[in-house]
Amino acid sequence: MADLHHRGDQSPPFQACISDAAQRGRFLMSRLIEQARKTMPVRADQATNRLERDLQHDALRLLLKHRNALEEAFPHALLECIGQLVDGGQGERSAGDLSFGALELMGDEQMQERVEMVRAQQAAADQVEAPLGELNSLICAAQGLRSVQADRNPLRPEVYVRSLRKVAGDMDVPTPVRVRWMQHFGEALGGELGAVYREL
């Protein structure tokens, strides 16, 4: 995996950290899929109606079908989202930044997707608070910043959630399936991301 855009205005330690994170992206995606493979049948068994049970089974079947494509695409999606932040672009708005008015303008399926993004982001942030704090310090130092600025860390949980949403959205699957992928990915992301942060 190449360094971020081969940028000359970023320090070697910063570029190395980003490159390392991208290289770990495939394994992270693999771990999330493996966790979802275990939890989806459980959720299907617990479903109180046939529609939800069928959707969980469909989500699992399509997840396994697209597994290789998701694993291959995630590191590139992560680099793309990181690049947007490093270049100063806003990219997609943070999941938590949407107003209730904006949510009201969405269709039911779009709203469900956005809700799952918010949940995934919040759950991950709650679980990685300690290792993320240490990583924030290291990333800011690598960028030559004199103080810790959490929003300058392009590896924060919301960037991973945005990258997950991008790769899921690029797969040829129905929206209800993507919603359930994000449900299960979100539940597993915090623990897996904490391990990535500690390794970085």
How many alpha or pi helices?
Answer: 8
Strand residue content: under 5%
Gyration radius (Cα, Å) is 17 Å
Separation of the first and last Cα atoms: 16 Å
Helix content: over 70%
Protein structure class? mainly alpha
How many strand segments? 0
Extract low-pLDDT stretches.
1-8, 89-100
Tell me, what's the shape? Answer: elongated
Order of helices and strands: HHHHHHHH
Largest sheet: none
Can you walk me through this structure?
The protein is elongated. The chain has 200 residues and is mostly helical. Helix 2 (50-65) packs across helix 8 (175-199) and helix 5 packs antiparallel against helix 7 (157-170). The protein is built from eight helices and no strands.
Quick synopsis:
With 200 residues, this protein is mostly helical.
From the structure above, extract its key features.
mainly alpha; single chain; 8 helices; 74% helix; 200 residues
Helix-strand blueprint:
Layout: H1 12-46, H2 50-65, H3 67-86, H4 100-104, H5 108-127, H6 129-142, H7 157-170, H8 175-199
